[in-house]
Design goal:
FAD/NAD(P)-binding domain; 17 strands; alpha/beta; 6 helices; about 20% helix; oxidoreductase; EC 1.8.1.9; single chain; thioredoxin-disulfide reductase (NADPH) activity; FAD
Length: about 325
Amino acid sequence: MIDLAIIGGGPAGLSAGLYATRGGIKDVVLFEKGAPGGQITGSSEIENYPGVKEIKSGLDFMEPWQEQCFRFGLKHNMSEVIRVEKLGSNFAIIHNSGKGEEAIESKSVIITTGGRPRKSNIKGEQEFWGRGVSTCATCDAFFYKKKEVAVLGGGDTAIEEAIYLTKFASKVHLIHRRDGFRAAPITVEHARNNPQINFLIPYTVEEICGDEKGVSSLKIKNLSTNEISTLEVPVIFEFVGYDVNNQILKQKDGSNLCDVNEFGSVKVNLKMHTNVKGLFAAGDIRVDAPKQVVCAAGDGAQAALEAIAYLESHK
């Protein structure tokens, strides 16, 4: 029996581990199959984390987090968690130990498994990922001040991020394969009223082109005429969906361990409580997550403080 299981080793999970162990929980285990660090380790540059003035790669940025968080007694279990089940007032962490499925019982759980932006699978996307292919306008808009940029997508996120990018870019080319948008009409209206946004509809991106320096242009196709043309931009921001890593919540009967929204994100209150007592969620797995490292870290700290209070009240 352990006191607290943290599932997921990104910024939210590591912060939760730090605050939980420093806060006095004796037996805290972080379940992360690989090396902790999370999705951010794939970023080429980070320069917007408060207090860190150097521009660092995601890998370099997360390296000291591990040392700091494990210093206070956080344990790392490198097995893959398959499912979390309710077990009376406690929880069963069903994991693959290498010898098959095994269960570890825990008094409380913090889910910090995050998510991942959906890829478009356009030719050149993988080659230029992080070098002119981005899924985070907040992270990367600053690098393209007074330049023309492209945005791919037709949902609320794509339209909202296109509007946000106009604060930096000289022009934003919004590319969508349909004439209509899934985004809220009022959001689309705001975009159409912004003279810096150029609507390219119905268009698709056929190829992302560039060289060793990164993206230089896009080959785009007009779906009405089938005409192929070149759009010279140094970056394409892709907003074609986001998949949360919520598989561990799925029970044997197909239900979820806790309440999720229509996109599969875990419903929590401002204190990271789910609707199941003793179960918390933090970071990109939760509803309305800003998908920023600093926010995920704050979520993890909040969840840990709540876990401490929960365990204290159930002694």
